[in-house]
Amino acid sequence: MKTVLVAINAKYIHSNLAVYSLRSYARTFGYEPELLEFTINQQKDQILKGIYEAKPDLLCFSCYIWNLSYAEEIIEDIKKILPKVTIWAGGPEVSYDAPKFLKRHPEVDGIMCAEGEKTLTELISYYEVGKSQGKSLDGINGIVYQENKTIHQTPLRDIMNMDDLVFPYEDLKDFEHKIIYYESSRGCPFSCSYCLSSIDKKLRFRSFSLVEKELEFFLAHKVPQVKFVDRTFNCKKSHAMAIWTYIKEHDNGITNFHFEIAADLLTEDEIALIQTMRPGLIQLEIGVQSTNEKTLAEIHRKTDFEEITRKVKAVQRGENVHQHLDLIAGLPYENYESFGRSFNDVYALKPEQLQLGFLKVLKGSYMAEAAEGYGCVHKAKPPYEVLGTCWLSYEEILKLKGVEEMVEVYYNSGQFQKTIRAMEHLFETAFSMYEELADFYEKNGYNEVSHTRIRRYEILQEFLREKEANLEYFKQLMIFDLYARENMKTRPQWANDLSAYKMQILDFYKKEEENPKLLTDYQSYQARQTIKMTHIEVFTYDVINENEEKGAYPVLFDYKKRSPLTNDAKAVFVQL
Ligand code: SF4
């Protein structure tokens, strides 16, 4: 009998930890399910073809909020071309109200609810031998299934001991150019009303003796990035400290580890440890969601923004950790103005990334139950994104979408750092800057087409012209931002003419070739090569110090010395 597990990921670089974990566990019982991973960007026909050609007898779908609509469509069609196939589904999106899902999909035989490792293994065993021996699916806990048009539900399965999970990565060949996901705990001790993890209160940890071996494996294989999917990684101090200490002591200089944490829980010694890590060794994702106290109380988030501020700033002092802060629009008691305040509060912390998300009203969450009372309406299909609340109209949500887009383009891309920082002084608040920029895009129809990077700078210049800003100064900042990111092959037409400095620049490189003081990483190259590998720009403003004083400021960009946090080239003043 052939079992096939299907995962449909949101992006090519993602991998689906759940199906790998299920397969690894089943293998210890001698079963060898095949995995098929697709992305939502593929044509559905391609997915259908891939599954058809695998010719499964037992076909299982891993369903999440980002792939449910796809999975449902595939499920309906696959039964038409493989009428004998047995179809099961699992994942949070189908576990909640499984009977309803089965009624909607008579072609699906059953749902594996909650953790699937043991359930899948028992199902394979049932279809391979148990069924022909007259056994019943009733003997398998944690499932809802339909037989003869009747829906049956078996008792919930006991939660797994995390140490019983089987490490799914002995072979890394499937994971080239992909993010590796890893779990060292399941469950969350907190109760945020919009989150499904708050329902599973059974917080469990994998023993450090196992985690240590698995981290050693990642480090030995020099994988570029490991994302911990632990819901609140630092909720148990001894666990977090042991892992952070291990990766610090065994750093291979390459691997980056990503953690979702509660910043306010960070302790002084955790921060002290983090500050001693290699820049880029870890990155932290911190959910702030809102700074409005009434909102936080209503969504049962016991966070203290002052404490978050203190901890985020303390981590920042180490200048070695990329911090990603999240906000959610559409929460109860958060109107447009108060969301703007939340935005400004979080923006003031200067995280490397600020993600502005929109509430998703997940089935089974407390938020879904309370939605009506909040006047909260949301999209009918996954991801059930908010369309309006008592406090926030759809029109305001559209405005926030515009702000979100501008933050993605001009802040999170990291391509406009000096320009944006200088622009902030022209506006009352950071929020009003992104709001006005979004309005400008809307007014000029710029949202309807995609833009090159250079065009984004030019649009910013048009916007600044309307604001009557010192455009010459801003153009110089933009040139700095461009060269900090890459050694431009084609100079923008608004860059300074450097021909007057040609000989001085050449002399600089010759002197460095003879006696390297700044270009110490280029000693095996001649001046004519180094001149192409680096860049000297003579600015007419002191852009390094963001000072509007005019003059001649030659700056060397060294692309071999990039910041591990921003990836920007090192930029220093030079004498010509
Ligand atoms: S949002 Fe985060 S902290 Fe809150 S319950 Fe979910 S996982 Fe836990």
* Overall mean pLDDT: 96
Shape: globular
* Low-confidence segments: none
For the termini, the CA-CA separation is 75 Å
Helix content: 25-40%
Number of helices: 20
Tally of DSSP β-strands: 20
Structural class: alpha/beta
Beta-strand content bin: 15-25%
Query: Which ions, cofactors or small ligands are bound in this entry?
Result: iron/sulfur cluster
> What does the largest sheet look like?
7 strands, mixed
Strand order of the largest sheet: 2-1-3-4-5-6-7
Radius of gyration: 27 Å
Describe this structure in words.
The protein contains 20 helices and 20 strands. With 576 residues, the chain is α/β, with parallel strands linked by helices. Strands 2-1-3-4-5-6-7 form a seven-stranded mixed beta sheet, with helices on both faces. The protein has a six-stranded parallel beta sheet with strand order 8-11-12-13-14-15. The protein has a three-stranded antiparallel beta sheet with strand order 18-19-20. The longest helix has 19 residues. 37% of the residues are buried. The model has no long low-confidence stretch (mean pLDDT 96). Bound molecules: iron/sulfur cluster. The site of iron/sulfur cluster has 10 residues, from loops.
In short:
With 576 residues, the protein is of the alpha/beta class.
